[in-house]
Amino acid sequence: MSSHKFPALHNAMWPGLVGKGPDSEPPIDLDTMLNLTAAADVDGVKFDGVDLFLCLPHTDIDSSDDDLKVLADKLSSRNLNAGSLVAPVWPPTGGGSAMGGPEDVEKFLTQVRKSCIIGKKLKDLGIRKSGVIRIDSATGVHDWAADPAGNTAKIANTFREAGRIAAGYGERLAAEGEICWGGMQSWRRNVELLEMVDMPATVGFQADMAHTMLFTMGYNAPEDRLLADDFDSLSKEDQAAALRIAYKKMASTLRPWTFDFHVAQNDGTVKGEGSHDKTGRHCQATDPNGKLDIVVDAGAWLRDENGNSSHKFEHICWDGCMFPNAVMMEQQTWNDILRTMIAVRDAHGWN
Description:
Elements: E1 8-12, H1 30-39, E2 49-53, H2 65-77, E3 81-86, H3 102-124, E4 133-135, H4 141-144, H5 148-168, E5 173-176, H6 187-197, E6 203-208, H7 209-217, H8 236-254, E7 258-263, E8 265-273, E9 276-283, H9 294-302, E10 315-318, H10 325-328, H11 331-348
Parallel strand pairs: 1-2, 1-10, 2-3, 3-4, 4-5, 5-6, 6-7, 7-10
Antiparallel strand pairs: 8-9
């Protein structure tokens, strides 16, 4: 049995959509993702909830009250809560670049506002007890690099306005740094951006173990690489030791800003699929090529600078973006993931 009850364990629903589509595999519908999550079981321990993507064909950003009641019923019938919500801030999903012109910024802010409204309604329905609204810059690194200082300032202004909107609904925003998002492609750039936004109680960071691992390797930001140039030539044991040191250093700079945490694995390569740009490759929890010791490295985020369990996150979430459909449709995949999540909670959680 699990030795700790907190934080709650959630599964992300967006892997059923991200990287899927006409030029890739078909999406996996929300009901199927919910069923796979609810069916996972490890010695009687089950997932407590799910984090949702507010975009069709899963959850419509323009959902009516009746639509949200149906969603709440779907969750409660499976003994699942809703948690963090991904705002569809990107141009293909109705949003706009955070560093774009007034029309783009207004589209970005509109998606944030709609997401906050849904978040509040799900709370009112009693189905959402924790979580944040997830955002990013909704722009590529190449476009951002045309004017790094100016574009970071524009993104910060947009995030600040988005933070004011979120605060009005009692929500917090977590910006997920990935190597594919302009102004957020390295650990240093994320800290720079959040310091410029200067709303530490409302606008923070979402740490994904797989995405942030790429920061140590300097993908899309070689000037911020933390690993030595000869890393690839080291033995497997020496690589693991060097990566752990670099990973802890990276996490220590972002941890004070972190509101939301994703457990994940990475094999040190990048991957793009469908319409999703190249970013950190999520691996199965049991992948022998995974570079992270998931349970140990999760402590870089779940424990404070003194090594104490921080009690900072009401729930933690597994992210398995861009897993092949055949892998996602296998129930054992989710049992393995749940077992890993339980091990993380046993090591760093509380009662």
